[in-house]
Design brief:
There is one protein chain. The protein is an all-alpha fold and 340 residues long. The chain is built from 17 helices and no strands. The chain is elongated. The longest helix has 40 residues, at 72-111. It starts with a helix and ends with a helix.
Amino acid sequence: MGNLLKVLTREIENYPHFFLDFENAQPTEGEREVWNQISAVLQDSESMLADLQAYKGAGQEIRDAIQNPNDIQLQEKAWNSVCPLVVRLKRFYEFSLRLEKALQSLLESLTCPPYTPTQHLEREQALAKEFAEILHFTLRFDELKMRNPAIQNDFSYYRRTISRNRINNMHLDIENEVNNEMANRMSLFYAEATPMLKTLSNATTYFVSENKTLPIENTTDCLSTMASICKVMLETPEYRSRFTSEETLMFCMRVMVGVIILYDHVHPVGAFSKTSKIDLVRFIYHCSIVASFCSQMKGCIKVLKEQPPDTVEGLLNALRFTTKHLNDESTSKQIRAMLQ
């Protein structure tokens, strides 16, 4: 343990130490074009979350229809309840596609030469803030989705009913809104435990594969640097005192988890290997509320202790179920045990 602490102490000295203003960063002229493009997408994010939070589902109507298959009125009631919900689910799915394009634009801006990822994030704080807002939205969306089994139940009922009507050569008006191809894509999206994170992971992987002249380190270093910046801001009293809202602390935690997951999907050995640049071991200690590891961790542990337990569990579940390399042989038994 003594040697580990020495290594960690030496590593933290090399971390980027600057304040990334998540609350007030404003775009420079050089950032303006991309910033406007991303802002046009993000302006709908809060309404998406509110809409998802208000999603109640048509569980009772569906149960009544299934239990009484010959009651035409109950069949119509269930169908009329499900159709507007499916249209709402389509809006969420289409927003994920907009978010995917937004992330790729941001990655292009934050990884391009001649600047290093650290220089990009320090110089282009408004774009870094938008990157963080995408990650923050994504984890919030997925937390809400995971708690709402009605989403998949409603959509499954919709698909069964459509298939049955297609067999009977019946065409329903909603098929003009959600046709078979769209329904198939939506089905794959909602089958994921964390669909928005999966979308961003795929977008990041695609960005790397399509930009073959750009070293993969430009992207992975951008992600690991963002994770380190969030961690340092949470641990450093001087930086934390500059936050004007307690919500910014949780914002940093969500962003840190988000970039760890993206890093794990893009980096060849993932976030859990000893060669990874992300200090995941410390982060997991934070989430496990283990205060004995290192005195420098007390600030972040305190933040987590003040959060609702289900919020912390959601972050841990994102690491458990959305990462790619957790079960690799190179992942230590200690890390696996922490995430069990």
